[in-house]
Write a structure and sequence with these properties.
The complex is a heterodimer. Chain A is mainly β. In chain A, the strands form two sheets. In chain A, strands 2, 4, 5, 6, 9, 10 and 11 form a seven-stranded mixed β-sheet that branches. A four-stranded antiparallel β-sheet of chain A has the order 1-3-8-7, with no helix packed on it. Chain A has no helices and eleven strands. In chain A, β7 and β8 form a beta hairpin. Chain B is mainly beta. Classes of the chains: A mainly beta, B mainly beta.
Chain lengths: 121, 109
């Protein structure tokens, strides 16, 4: 059974940093592309970032480019999202999601339960 | 970036009725790379449909997807109580950014 468990969310001041983690199990983590998707309170879904199985290819939404860094540790079956220079508009539930498809034509076939990030003074 | 527009924003129906949700794209979605997700309050989204019309594992056959190009549809043939939720479409027909529609809420009438 595929399981994705996010952690690391919390309250942070504007301009601060936070690192999210996503522990994966139930599949061969090192061969699967992964992603982060966020949802602001009461709003829709927004794709944030994606990463290939090897970690060699990354993509970012324009809204987070230059501030967020996605990475993975395949020895620990864990995905990360380092978030710097946080803004109030980054407040959201952040979901870790497993990607499925081919050649970066990917959809999200499994999702974690999400972790809440609140950026506020 | 492909913009997806879902309609209607809210659909008020009774259990047993048929639900038809639409997703329109600002440009053609190649190879029908369109997915649908269901989200219930406080929970993560769940994959329903991929490739415009293929049901994900474990999804009941009352859910069906259709369409191509710029117009896509999710149909729920007979609404069950557990189907009242928000539904999102997502296109993946090009390299990122992948985009979602703004969602359609299916509520009990």
């Amino acid at each position: 059974e595929v399981q994705l468990l996010e952690s690391g969310g919390g309250l942070v001041q504007p301009g601060g940093s936070l690192r999210l983690s996503c522990a994966a199990s139930g599949f061969t983590f090192s061969t699967q592309a992964m992603s982060w998707v966020r949802q602001a309170p009461g709003k829709g879904l927004e794709w944030v970032s994606g990463l290939s199985g090897t970690g060699g290819t990354t993509y970012y939404a324009d809204s987070v480019k230059g501030r967020f860094t996605i990475s993975r540790d395949n020895s620990k079956n864990t995905l990360y999202l380092q978030m710097n220079s946080l803004r109030a508009e980054d407040t959201a539930v952040y979901y870790c999601a497993k990607l499925r498809g081919y050649n970066w034509n990917y959809y999200f076939d499994y999702w974690g339960q999400g972790t809440l990030v609140t950026v506020s003074s | 970036e492909i913009v997806l527009t879902q309609s209607p924003a809210t659909l008020s129906l009774s259990p047993g009725e048929r639900a038809t949700l639409s997703c329109g794209a600002s440009q053609s979605v190649s190879s029908s790379y369109l997915a649908w997700y269901q989200q219930k309050p406080g929970l993560a989204p769940r994959l329903l449909i991929y490739g415009a019309s293929s049901r994900a594992t474990g999804i009941p056959d009352r859910f069906s997807g259709s369409g191509s190009g710029t117009d896509f549809t999710l149909t729920i043939s007979r609404l069950e109580p557990e189907d009242f939720a928000v539904y999102y479409c997502q296109q993946y027909g090009s390299s990122p950014p992948w985009t979602f529609g703004q969602g359609t809420k299916v509520e009990i009438k």
